[in-house]
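Thread: quick sanity check before group meeting

JM: Hey all, I'm pulling together slides for Thursday and realized we never actually wrote out the predicted structure for the chain we discussed last week. Dropping the sequence here so it's in one place. If anyone has concerns about the input, flag it before I start.
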Amino acid sequence: MNNLIRQLKELEKLGSSMRLAAEEWNEPWKTLITTIMSARTRDEVTIPVADKLFKKYKTVKGLANANLKDVQMIIKPINFYKNKSRNIVNCAKSLVKYHDSKPPHDFDKLIELPGVGRKTANVFLSEMGKDTIGIDTHVAYISKKLGWTGSNKPKEIEDDLKKLFPRRYWKRINPILVRFGKSHTSRRKKDEILDRIKNLN
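JM (edit): ok, ran it. Output follows.
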């Protein structure tokens, strides 16, 4: 156990302090919408696009009533922007219609929303202070490399990490591993560092 915490803290030290897409929004709906947009798109691209979107649509109702083509024009730098435009407008509609314009803090209700899968729901919930672990490509790769999991399936990786780490660390795992992954873009260099961390005593 202590060795795992040491490994996690070493990863934290070696990651940069960059802002991640889900962080630092002043309203939960903005956190959720930005997290939907950030899937398979770099945070440094997502954040300024989200800023622009929220300058035009200042409320969930405003986004729910948005013209789809206008949203597409704003979020065009985002990967899969056409599909994501539909999802974020429909997600806003669902929030207004069924959730009093506020994202639910409940995993099962979140994944019913358009564009919200397991990873997005868990990243959102951890930003809201809940003990969850969002599994993305960085978390999956690093966890496997360090021997924390033997699986490639997000749900199984999540379950393995929850068994290994005390609950109080769960919400820190995704940001720490993502920052480390984004700080070291060379696969060879990353693997060298991870091999060293794996052998920490």
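AS: nice. Residues 2-16+132-198 form a domain with the Endonuclease Iii, domain 2 fold (CATH 1.10.1670.10). The first helix runs from residue 2 to 14.
JM: adding both to the slides.
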